[in-house]
Amino acid sequence: MERDKVIEVKDLVKRFGTFTANDHLTFDVWRGEIFGFLGANGAGKTTAIRILCGLSRPTSGRVMVAGIDASQKPEEIKKRIGYMSQRFSLYEDLTVSENIELYGGIYGMSMKEIVPRREALLEKLSFTSYGDMLIRALPLGLKQKLAFSVAVFHDPEIVFLDEPTSGVDPITRRQFWEMIYETASRGITVFVTTHYMDEASYCDRISIMSEGRIVALDSPSALLRQYGTASVEELFVKIARPQKIRE
Amino acid sequence: MKKLLFLLRKEFRQIRRNRFMIRAIIAVPILQMLIFVPAITFEIKRIDLAVIDNDRSQASRELVSKLTGSSFFVVTATPATVTEAESMLLSGDADIALVIPPDFSRGLAGVTTPRLQVLADAVNASTAQLSWSYITSVIRDFNREVIISTGMIPANMAAIRTGSLP
Amino acid sequence: MKRLMAFVRKEFLHIFRDFRTLIILFGIPAAQILIFGYAVRTDLKDAGIAVLDNARDGVSKELIQKIEASEFFYVKRYLASYEEIDAAFRQGEIKAAIIFPGQIAASVAREGSATIGIIADGSEPNTASLVTGYITGIVNDYSSSLASAVTSSLPLIVPEVRMYFNPGLKSHFMFIPGVITLILILICALMTSVTIVREKEYGTMEVLLVSPLKPWQIIIGKVTPYFFLSLVNVIVILLMTWFVFGLPVRGSIPLLIAGCMLYILLGLSFGILVSASTSKTENAVFISLLTLMLPTILLSGFIFPIENMPKVYDYVSMALPPRWFVGIIRAIMIKGAGFGYIWKETAILAGMTLLIMVISARRFKTRLGEEGR
Fold first, then answer.
1. Domain C47-150, CATH among 3.40.50.720, 3.40.30.10, 3.30.200.20, 3.40.1710.10
2. Of A67, A180, A245, C32, which one has the greatest count of Cβ atoms within 10 A?
3. Residue A159: what pLDDT?
């Protein structure tokens, strides 16, 4: 059975002036998989993600996200994806419910669709009586879990997570990844970047970027065998170059 | 005490490197002060006059030229009716409208007492009052000249003048 | 469209939750109006003057009486000698000193003329010129009455004045439209630039950009609440000037509101332009304040009449929107003028608004398009 590809990237090049941030990237992401996008800082990850999210256009190459050509119709892509930013996605001075309603509305859902789903979400998070609490009052771990839930609230085809567990304690991280598994099993593809190497091993497949190129792409276990390293961390240190000082 | 000095050094360095701050807090205000200060003045430089001359005599023309002789008054229009003049006050085309009555020159011959109407745009009250005071001075002088020139009274007409001391 | 409504709702929530912002939004305009209406006065009232009366005869006494009778002056001190004048000025008690030479009545009778000296405190040039002007006026009046006593049959031109638009000669008629001009543009530009830059600082702007919301929708969403709030502000200010100062709107109120809406739009667009130039909230505040405050106060004709400035400044002020709006608002509020009188200023203001809107929209798009910052 041929699984369908939800992201297809072939020879993606992105240049800023004379600097090449993405140098002929080629990779695909299957529907429903958890794809880890790793790389040192400054390797070009953020640039690639912005192209995938429809925020910028490739200099050359073919990029299809959720069936849409990223160089032609990036705005269409935005409707089908979800995004969780590394900093904050939720507005601190709005309540839990208000944030949910906001993003639901922005992604085109009507109040009729939003309300029941919101109630279900609050219940799942054991948060039913806290719907009117300001985000500001929540602990970080809870904020992150909530931000993730909001990012997938509108049932996107893919959700992009930019270092979602930074600064979060290990227990909450574990719970977070359980949420990710559950989301993926619903058919939503999860595209996640992280610097936590143990999280990399939770992914179905990972890619490692270094200096604008992809230097590794496969399932974690396959890569470990291929490079003979005991952990993803070792693998990373072996093949990824640290960030250079740009003139 | 020394700790404080280190802190101060850091603060100054930060400000020096913060190009925006330098521009915003120091350069822009200074520049603005230098540029704008010469503009600030309440001194009246110019008053736009609309003159309705219903007499059209030599006397009325002389009065108008006496007004424009001072550097303040500039005749910008000669409307025909008071309504037109009022419209100029509304639009701001004139600051003051002068209505010279038809019996102006006759009045100067001693027949009637001509009433000169001054319509002033008083939105800026002080300017209006000052302008009015200038106009009355000019008219008073004009009046005396007329009287003197027609020889009705010797040159030393009873009058009190004001001036500033050295 | 639905997406936009959800977004606009959020903006309103933000504003009303932030108490400090509300204070700024509504409190400062009110405070400014009160200050400029009550405290700041350029008219002359009860100015203290000193008199050195060396004549002490009928003429001088009558003149002094007339001067005191006017509402502008009162005689604060009677000086005994010339030397005391300096000290009186230095102490700051008096705005002017009037010097009567000896035997004035006699000179008038004998020679037909006399000279009175006026010394004014020049450190406040505006007051000085008003003082000199008014005293001269009073003296002139007296002088004519003397003359007409002598020459009652001689012709005298009697000028009469009618003060249009401001018969009570109140100074706040000139100021209050100016204050409205200043406040509106400051608040609109400040609030808009701050709200947009704050999103950038928090990182939520990134999220908005990834969402299906188009950039223009983001801008409209940010700006709409402030548009309405500014209108509310305008109405509050107008009510205040009416009830507190007795300054009604003489002209058409709908026309005034329409003019305000145009100007508010301009202020908001300017705020967007500022927000596209910086990514730190404090910078946005600085830029808005510095570029708008002094130029508007000094060059818009708000306090200092433009006709009195050197020609150069006249041209410079033509590039400033507040100058045109002051004209519009004064014409409608105080002169009661209709649209026919202000179409020129309105057209210019509309042109400027359009220009700023286009520039700021472009800048916003380019800045955020490729970089997301």
1. 3.40.1710.10
2. A180
3. 95
Which residues in C lie closer than 8 A to residue B49 (C-beta atoms)? none
Residue C150 or A155, more confident: A155
- The contacts of residue B14 (CB under 8 Å, 6+ apart) are none
| One-letter amino acid for residue C109 of the chain | A
Q: Which residues of A touch C2 (CB under 8 A)?
A: 105, 108, 110
Q: Which of B33, B82, B91, B124 should be substituted to probe chain C, the one whose Cβ sees the most C Cβ atoms within 10 Å?
A: B124
**Is B1 contained in some domain?**
no
Residue type at C166 in one-letter notation: N
Task: Give the 3-state secondary structure of residue C137.
Answer: helix
Q: What is the ipTM of this complex?
A: 0.81
For residue A64, the model assigns a pLDDT of: 92
Q: Can you list the domains of chain A with their CATH numbers?
A: 5-239 (3.40.50.300)
Residues of B in contact with C147 (CB under 8 A): 144, 157-159
Rounded percentage of chain A residues whose pLDDT exceeds 70: 96
In a domain, B155, yes or no: no
pLDDT value of residue A243: 66
| A144 three-class SS | helix
Pick from B39, B119, B144: which is nearest to C299 by CB?
B39
Please list the ranges in chain C whose pLDDT falls under 70. 41-43, 111-112, 147-156, 367-373
Give me the long-range contacts of B20-26 (CB less than 8 A, separation at least 24).
Answer: B20/C278, B20/C283, B20/C286, B24/C283, B24/C286, B24/C287, B24/C290, B25/C286
| C157/B143 Cβ within 8 A | yes
pTM: 0.80
